[in-house]
Inverse folding.
């Protein structure tokens, strides 16, 4: 478990200091805004969907380390996936952080995102980790209303 915690810390710090896909993606076909009032995180997610595939995804905003790292890793994990795969990965990630049954989702399917399993130990931080994901879902659905974690 110590190795997983070390990996968790390394990945979170790396993606916080050097977020991937930060800025507005060219040719975005949808976007959505999200806010976590408890922590103050704000995110805007941009999607470019072509032929049912995420060909571009990025984010802008400011937030805590967990929020920024989650958004960064989400953009890396979703690019190139079709909409069904994106929705499935959203549900697997959400289950990783919110399922109280004691069973874990398929960690192999989550890839590097599995490092967020440690966030579950800090319930207040779950909202930080899932904000970008809920915002991405809103962008998929062309939802105009801002996403809130409250």
């Amino acid at each position: 478990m110590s190795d997983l915690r070390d990996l968790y810390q390394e990945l979170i710090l790396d993606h916080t200091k050097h977020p991937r896909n930060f800025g507005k993606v060219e040719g975005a076909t949808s976007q959505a805004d999200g806010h976590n009032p408890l922590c103050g995180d704000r995110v805007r997610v941009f999607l470019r969907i072509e032929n049912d595939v995420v060909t571009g995804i990025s984010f802008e905003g400011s937030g805590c380390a967990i929020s920024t790292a989650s958004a960064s890793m989400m953009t890396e994990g979703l690019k190139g996936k079709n909409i069904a795969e994106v929705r499935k990965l959203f549900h697997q990630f959400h289950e990783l952080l919110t399922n109280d049954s004691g069973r874990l989702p398929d960690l192999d399917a989550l890839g590097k995102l599995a490092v967020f399993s440690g966030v579950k130990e800090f319930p207040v931080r779950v909202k930080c980790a899932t904000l970008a994901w809920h915002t991405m879902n809103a962008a998929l659905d062309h939802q105009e209303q801002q996403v809130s974690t409250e």
